[in-house]
Amino acid sequence: MASDESSAAEQALAAAIAERGEGHLDVAYRRVDLALARRDAGDLPRAAGLLEAALAVMVPALGEGADDVVDIRAALAQVLLASGDLRGARAVLEEALAAVTDRDDRDMHVCLCRVTLASVLTELGDLPGAKVLLERVLATTIANFGADHPDVGAVYNQLGGVLVGLGDRSGAQTMFANSLAITVAHFGEDHPAGAAPRFNLAALHELAGDLEQAYGLLAAALAIEERTQGAAHASTATTRVRVAAVLHKLGRHDEARAAAARALADVSSAPTDSRDRRSVEVVVRQILER
Predict the structure, then answer these.
(1) 75/250 Cα distance (integer angstroms)
(2) Helix (H), strand (E) counts: the chain
(3) Are 61 and 31 in contact (CB under 8 A)?
Protein backbone atom coordinates (compact mmCIF):
# COMPACT_ATOMS: atom_id res chain seq x y z
CA MET A 1 0.00 0.00 0.00
CA ALA A 2 2.77 2.48 0.94
CA SER A 3 4.58 1.67 -2.32
CA ASP A 4 1.42 2.31 -4.31
CA GLU A 5 0.86 5.64 -2.57
CA SER A 6 4.46 6.69 -3.20
CA SER A 7 4.24 5.75 -6.86
CA ALA A 8 1.02 7.69 -7.34
CA ALA A 9 2.48 10.71 -5.52
CA GLU A 10 5.66 10.56 -7.65
CA GLN A 11 3.56 10.58 -10.80
CA ALA A 12 1.40 13.47 -9.56
CA LEU A 13 4.49 15.52 -8.72
CA ALA A 14 6.12 14.85 -12.09
CA ALA A 15 2.91 15.84 -13.90
CA ALA A 16 2.57 19.04 -11.86
CA ILE A 17 6.18 20.04 -12.55
CA ALA A 18 5.74 19.40 -16.28
CA GLU A 19 2.56 21.47 -16.40
CA ARG A 20 3.33 24.33 -13.98
CA GLY A 21 7.07 24.45 -13.29
CA GLU A 22 9.19 23.84 -10.18
CA GLY A 23 8.22 26.99 -8.30
CA HIS A 24 4.44 26.73 -8.53
CA LEU A 25 2.41 26.45 -5.33
CA ASP A 26 0.54 23.40 -6.62
CA VAL A 27 3.89 21.66 -7.14
CA ALA A 28 4.78 22.43 -3.51
CA TYR A 29 1.61 20.70 -2.34
CA ARG A 30 2.37 17.68 -4.52
CA ARG A 31 5.81 17.58 -2.87
CA VAL A 32 4.14 17.49 0.53
CA ASP A 33 1.95 14.57 -0.59
CA LEU A 34 5.01 12.65 -1.75
CA ALA A 35 6.94 13.54 1.41
CA LEU A 36 4.23 12.06 3.61
CA ALA A 37 4.14 8.91 1.48
CA ARG A 38 7.94 8.56 1.71
CA ARG A 39 7.79 9.20 5.48
CA ASP A 40 5.23 6.42 5.89
CA ALA A 41 7.48 4.15 3.83
CA GLY A 42 10.41 4.88 6.17
CA ASP A 43 12.39 7.04 3.73
CA LEU A 44 13.00 9.88 6.19
CA PRO A 45 15.83 11.69 4.34
CA ARG A 46 13.74 11.96 1.16
CA ALA A 47 10.71 13.07 3.14
CA ALA A 48 12.69 15.82 4.87
CA GLY A 49 14.14 17.09 1.59
CA LEU A 50 10.73 17.22 -0.06
CA LEU A 51 9.18 19.11 2.86
CA GLU A 52 12.04 21.61 2.89
CA ALA A 53 11.64 22.16 -0.86
CA ALA A 54 7.89 22.64 -0.42
CA LEU A 55 8.41 25.20 2.32
CA ALA A 56 10.85 27.15 0.15
CA VAL A 57 7.93 27.82 -2.20
CA MET A 58 5.09 28.04 0.30
CA VAL A 59 6.61 30.53 2.75
CA PRO A 60 7.02 33.35 0.16
CA ALA A 61 3.64 32.55 -1.39
CA LEU A 62 1.53 32.11 1.75
CA GLY A 63 3.48 33.78 4.56
CA GLU A 64 5.26 32.49 7.64
CA GLY A 65 2.09 32.30 9.72
CA ALA A 66 -0.16 30.50 7.24
CA ASP A 67 -1.83 27.38 8.64
CA ASP A 68 -0.36 25.13 5.95
CA VAL A 69 3.14 26.48 6.55
CA VAL A 70 2.84 25.91 10.29
CA ASP A 71 1.52 22.37 9.80
CA ILE A 72 4.21 21.44 7.26
CA ARG A 73 6.90 22.74 9.58
CA ALA A 74 5.44 20.51 12.28
CA ALA A 75 5.52 17.56 9.86
CA LEU A 76 9.15 18.34 8.98
CA ALA A 77 10.03 18.49 12.67
CA GLN A 78 8.42 15.08 13.22
CA VAL A 79 10.54 13.63 10.40
CA LEU A 80 13.71 15.22 11.81
CA LEU A 81 12.83 13.91 15.27
CA ALA A 82 12.37 10.39 13.89
CA SER A 83 15.73 10.78 12.12
CA GLY A 84 17.47 11.74 15.35
CA ASP A 85 18.07 15.37 14.36
CA LEU A 86 16.72 16.80 17.60
CA ARG A 87 18.27 20.24 17.31
CA GLY A 88 17.05 20.60 13.75
CA ALA A 89 13.53 19.58 14.80
CA ARG A 90 13.60 22.06 17.68
CA ALA A 91 14.73 24.91 15.42
CA VAL A 92 11.94 24.21 12.91
CA LEU A 93 9.28 24.16 15.63
CA GLU A 94 10.53 27.30 17.33
CA GLU A 95 10.47 29.05 13.95
CA ALA A 96 6.88 27.91 13.40
CA LEU A 97 5.76 29.03 16.86
CA ALA A 98 7.49 32.41 16.48
CA ALA A 99 5.28 33.08 13.47
CA VAL A 100 2.02 32.51 15.39
CA THR A 101 2.60 34.33 18.66
CA ASP A 102 -0.56 36.37 18.06
CA ARG A 103 -2.80 33.26 18.06
CA ASP A 104 -4.97 32.04 20.89
CA ASP A 105 -3.81 29.04 22.94
CA ARG A 106 -6.78 27.09 21.62
CA ASP A 107 -5.51 27.24 18.03
CA MET A 108 -4.93 23.61 17.03
CA HIS A 109 -2.05 24.41 14.68
CA VAL A 110 -0.21 25.91 17.65
CA CYS A 111 -1.09 22.86 19.74
CA LEU A 112 0.37 20.56 17.09
CA CYS A 113 3.67 22.43 17.21
CA ARG A 114 3.73 22.45 21.00
CA VAL A 115 3.01 18.74 21.38
CA THR A 116 5.73 17.95 18.83
CA LEU A 117 8.16 20.30 20.56
CA ALA A 118 7.38 18.49 23.82
CA SER A 119 8.50 15.24 22.17
CA VAL A 120 11.73 16.91 21.06
CA LEU A 121 12.40 18.36 24.51
CA THR A 122 11.76 14.94 26.06
CA GLU A 123 14.39 13.38 23.81
CA LEU A 124 16.78 16.24 24.63
CA GLY A 125 16.28 15.58 28.35
CA ASP A 126 14.38 18.78 29.12
CA LEU A 127 11.56 17.02 30.94
CA PRO A 128 10.38 20.07 32.92
CA GLY A 129 10.07 22.03 29.67
CA ALA A 130 8.17 19.17 28.03
CA LYS A 131 5.84 18.94 31.04
CA VAL A 132 4.95 22.63 30.88
CA LEU A 133 4.14 22.38 27.17
CA LEU A 134 2.04 19.23 27.55
CA GLU A 135 0.07 20.60 30.49
CA ARG A 136 -0.71 23.65 28.37
CA VAL A 137 -1.75 21.51 25.41
CA LEU A 138 -3.84 19.26 27.67
CA ALA A 139 -5.81 22.20 29.03
CA THR A 140 -6.33 23.55 25.52
CA THR A 141 -7.41 20.20 24.08
CA ILE A 142 -9.92 19.65 26.89
CA ALA A 143 -11.29 23.15 26.33
CA ASN A 144 -11.59 22.53 22.59
CA PHE A 145 -13.03 19.02 22.54
CA GLY A 146 -14.05 17.95 26.03
CA ALA A 147 -12.36 15.81 28.67
CA ASP A 148 -13.14 12.47 27.04
CA HIS A 149 -11.96 13.18 23.49
CA PRO A 150 -9.38 10.79 21.96
CA ASP A 151 -6.94 13.67 21.39
CA VAL A 152 -7.04 14.30 25.14
CA GLY A 153 -6.21 10.64 25.68
CA ALA A 154 -3.16 10.94 23.43
CA VAL A 155 -1.87 13.93 25.41
CA TYR A 156 -2.45 12.07 28.69
CA ASN A 157 -0.28 9.22 27.41
CA GLN A 158 2.54 11.53 26.32
CA LEU A 159 2.42 13.50 29.57
CA GLY A 160 2.54 10.24 31.51
CA GLY A 161 5.82 9.35 29.85
CA VAL A 162 7.31 12.68 30.91
CA LEU A 163 6.11 12.20 34.48
CA VAL A 164 7.81 8.79 34.59
CA GLY A 165 11.06 10.49 33.66
CA LEU A 166 10.52 13.06 36.40
CA GLY A 167 10.00 10.30 38.98
CA ASP A 168 6.28 10.89 39.47
CA ARG A 169 5.06 7.31 39.04
CA SER A 170 1.71 7.96 40.69
CA GLY A 171 0.96 10.88 38.42
CA ALA A 172 2.13 8.90 35.42
CA GLN A 173 -0.12 5.97 36.28
CA THR A 174 -3.11 8.32 36.43
CA MET A 175 -2.22 9.76 33.02
CA PHE A 176 -1.82 6.32 31.40
CA ALA A 177 -5.01 5.01 32.98
CA ASN A 178 -6.93 8.06 31.77
CA SER A 179 -5.54 7.58 28.27
CA LEU A 180 -6.53 3.92 28.16
CA ALA A 181 -10.01 4.60 29.56
CA ILE A 182 -10.70 7.25 26.92
CA THR A 183 -9.40 5.04 24.12
CA VAL A 184 -11.49 2.04 25.18
CA ALA A 185 -14.60 4.19 25.64
CA HIS A 186 -14.31 5.63 22.14
CA PHE A 187 -12.85 2.81 20.08
CA GLY A 188 -13.23 -0.43 22.03
CA GLU A 189 -10.76 -2.77 23.71
CA ASP A 190 -8.83 -3.77 20.59
CA HIS A 191 -8.13 -0.40 18.95
CA PRO A 192 -4.46 0.29 18.03
CA ALA A 193 -4.43 3.45 20.15
CA GLY A 194 -4.87 1.27 23.23
CA ALA A 195 -1.52 -0.48 22.83
CA ALA A 196 0.72 2.39 23.99
CA PRO A 197 -1.04 3.20 27.29
CA ARG A 198 -1.21 -0.53 28.09
CA PHE A 199 2.53 -0.87 27.42
CA ASN A 200 3.25 2.15 29.63
CA LEU A 201 0.99 0.99 32.44
CA ALA A 202 2.64 -2.42 32.28
CA ALA A 203 6.06 -0.82 32.79
CA LEU A 204 4.83 0.84 35.98
CA HIS A 205 3.31 -2.39 37.27
CA GLU A 206 6.56 -4.21 36.49
CA LEU A 207 8.53 -1.62 38.46
CA ALA A 208 6.11 -2.03 41.36
CA GLY A 209 6.54 -5.82 41.29
CA ASP A 210 3.00 -6.53 40.11
CA LEU A 211 4.18 -8.91 37.40
CA GLU A 212 0.88 -10.66 36.66
CA GLN A 213 -0.82 -7.32 35.98
CA ALA A 214 2.14 -6.23 33.85
CA TYR A 215 2.00 -9.45 31.86
CA GLY A 216 -1.74 -9.11 31.20
CA LEU A 217 -1.36 -5.56 29.91
CA LEU A 218 1.63 -6.45 27.73
CA ALA A 219 -0.08 -9.52 26.28
CA ALA A 220 -3.08 -7.38 25.33
CA ALA A 221 -0.84 -4.72 23.76
CA LEU A 222 1.10 -7.37 21.85
CA ALA A 223 -2.08 -8.92 20.44
CA ILE A 224 -3.20 -5.50 19.18
CA GLU A 225 0.16 -4.74 17.57
CA GLU A 226 0.42 -8.15 15.92
CA ARG A 227 -3.00 -7.66 14.36
CA THR A 228 -2.58 -4.04 13.27
CA GLN A 229 1.16 -3.66 12.57
CA GLY A 230 2.30 -7.20 11.90
CA ALA A 231 4.37 -9.62 13.92
CA ALA A 232 7.69 -8.36 12.56
CA HIS A 233 7.11 -4.62 13.14
CA ALA A 234 9.70 -2.89 15.35
CA SER A 235 7.08 -1.77 17.85
CA THR A 236 5.70 -5.31 18.06
CA ALA A 237 9.19 -6.67 18.69
CA THR A 238 9.73 -4.12 21.46
CA THR A 239 6.52 -5.18 23.17
CA ARG A 240 7.33 -8.88 22.68
CA VAL A 241 10.71 -8.51 24.34
CA ARG A 242 9.07 -6.82 27.33
CA VAL A 243 6.67 -9.77 27.51
CA ALA A 244 9.75 -12.01 27.54
CA ALA A 245 11.32 -10.01 30.35
CA VAL A 246 8.20 -10.24 32.52
CA LEU A 247 7.82 -13.96 31.80
CA HIS A 248 11.42 -14.43 32.90
CA LYS A 249 10.73 -12.62 36.18
CA LEU A 250 7.66 -14.82 36.68
CA GLY A 251 9.86 -17.90 36.39
CA ARG A 252 8.37 -18.98 33.06
CA HIS A 253 11.82 -19.31 31.55
CA ASP A 254 11.08 -21.46 28.49
CA GLU A 255 8.31 -19.10 27.36
CA ALA A 256 10.60 -16.14 28.04
CA ARG A 257 13.42 -17.55 25.91
CA ALA A 258 11.04 -18.36 23.05
CA ALA A 259 9.57 -14.84 23.08
CA ALA A 260 13.04 -13.28 23.30
CA ALA A 261 14.35 -15.33 20.38
CA ARG A 262 11.36 -14.36 18.26
CA ALA A 263 11.76 -10.64 19.11
CA LEU A 264 15.44 -10.86 18.16
CA ALA A 265 14.57 -12.48 14.83
CA ASP A 266 11.97 -9.79 14.15
CA VAL A 267 14.56 -6.98 14.38
CA SER A 268 17.39 -8.87 12.67
CA SER A 269 16.83 -7.03 9.38
CA ALA A 270 16.79 -3.56 11.01
CA PRO A 271 19.93 -1.40 10.80
CA THR A 272 22.43 -2.39 13.48
CA ASP A 273 22.38 1.12 14.97
CA SER A 274 18.58 1.46 15.12
CA ARG A 275 17.14 2.25 18.54
CA ASP A 276 14.54 -0.53 18.36
CA ARG A 277 17.10 -3.18 17.48
CA ARG A 278 19.52 -2.08 20.19
CA SER A 279 16.84 -2.04 22.89
CA VAL A 280 15.61 -5.51 21.92
CA GLU A 281 19.14 -6.94 21.82
CA VAL A 282 19.97 -5.62 25.30
CA VAL A 283 16.93 -7.31 26.89
CA VAL A 284 17.43 -10.54 24.91
CA ARG A 285 21.02 -10.81 26.13
CA GLN A 286 19.88 -10.34 29.72
CA ILE A 287 17.32 -13.14 29.34
CA LEU A 288 19.40 -15.65 27.37
CA GLU A 289 22.52 -15.21 29.49
CA ARG A 290 20.78 -15.93 32.80
Answers:
(1) 42
(2) 14, 0
(3) no
